[in-house]
Amino acid sequence: MEKMEILKNLDRLKDPKILIIGDFAIDEMVFGQTERISREAPVLILQHSETKIILGTASNAANNISALNCGKAGAIGVLGDDYYGGVLIEALNKAKINTDFMVVDKSRKTTTKTRISGSCSQSITQQIVRIDRQTKTPLSTEIEEKIVENIKKAVPMYDGVILSDYHLGCLTENVIKTAIETAKAYNKIIVADIQKDMEKYRGVTAITPNQPDSEKFLGYFINDEDSLKKAGEELSKRLDLKYALITRGEKGMVLFNNSAQAPVMTKIPAFNKKEVFDVTGAGDTVVAAFTLALCAGMSPENAMVIGNLAASIVIRQFGCHTTNLDELKSELNNIKEI
């Protein structure tokens, strides 16, 4: 891994088109100024100041892709026939994400997490309550068939596929199986960002779990070099992976490259430990940048560096955020060693 080589090739991230399949959602951020205590109940009355719509879960992965490759991102998922369904589609389209293959399911709610926050002149803004609207039940046979049909249509149009599983019902076994088989049939890279039920994703090109989720799946703690190497090799073998990228928080990342005869383990440190504000959505950023770099023909080791770099930028801001090529170049120039 050489910094100048990565820097020279960063503009290639604009070329690949990436399809994101998974659980799409929005974060509705409602802000207000505290006025007084209500006479009706012992609760604050807020004077509404603004509402922000932020793309979360698989929507955040798609948003990160679009911000890096100038709008060459597509989405496959479900939304409800409700007000927030329209808000979701509008937000995705505003981010230049193709929504032609999204499927409306009248039996489901559009996944929305509403956070209501208040502040006064003498305090910082603080979250008061969160309201979740979501349907976690598996897809009906009819909706599942529509998703499967759209996957078969869309995958040939893209260079790579991301499976973003937040366990909200979209990624059924049949949907996962179809995505993997179709991607392989057209020789496409397919990467899964998963937290549990990892055995369902056997045969993908790569996975990007964090260390605690990897430990839960494997059944033991990763607490030294030997257990780390064992974990990567076991994940790779059990799931038939080319690459396993494990994110480790402040310890950085480790990549297991199984494309050669003997597996190779490569570790890198976290690039930003001092300015962490909010790690929300960092995993989405990692899988987006890592997948883009793989599809752009970069080595998996350099792709890991780019994923780490992108995450180090977005965690400096509150909530789900994206980065762009200019920020990546600037940040890479400031790093002394990789």
Task: List the topology elements.
Layout: H1 3-9, E1 18-22, E2 24-37, E3 44-57, H2 58-69, E4 73-76, E5 78-79, H3 83-94, E6 97-98, E7 103-104, E8 112-119, E9 126-133, H4 141-154, E10 160-164, H5 173-185, E11 189-193, E12 206-207, H6 211-218, H7 225-239, E13 243-247, E14 253-257, E15 264-268, H8 282-295, H9 300-314, H10 325-334
Parallel strand pairs: 1-4, 1-10, 2-8, 4-6, 5-7, 10-11, 11-12, 12-13
Antiparallel strand pairs: 2-3, 8-9, 13-14, 14-15
Helix pairs in contact: 2-8, 4-5, 8-9, 9-10
Task: Give a structural overview.
This protein is α/β, with parallel strands linked by helices. The chain has helices at residues 3-9, 58-69, 83-94, 141-154, 173-185, 211-218, 225-239, 282-295, 300-314, 325-334; strands spanning 18-22, 24-37, 44-57, 73-76, 78-79, 97-98, 103-104, 112-119, 126-133, 160-164, 189-193, 206-207, 243-247, 253-257, 264-268. The strands form 3 sheets. It has a 9-stranded mixed β-sheet with strand order 6-4-1-10-11-12-13-14-15, with helices on both faces. A 4-stranded mixed β-sheet has the order 3-2-8-9. Helix 8 (282-295) packs antiparallel against helix 9 (300-314). The longest helix is centred in the last third of the chain and has 15 residues, at 225-239.
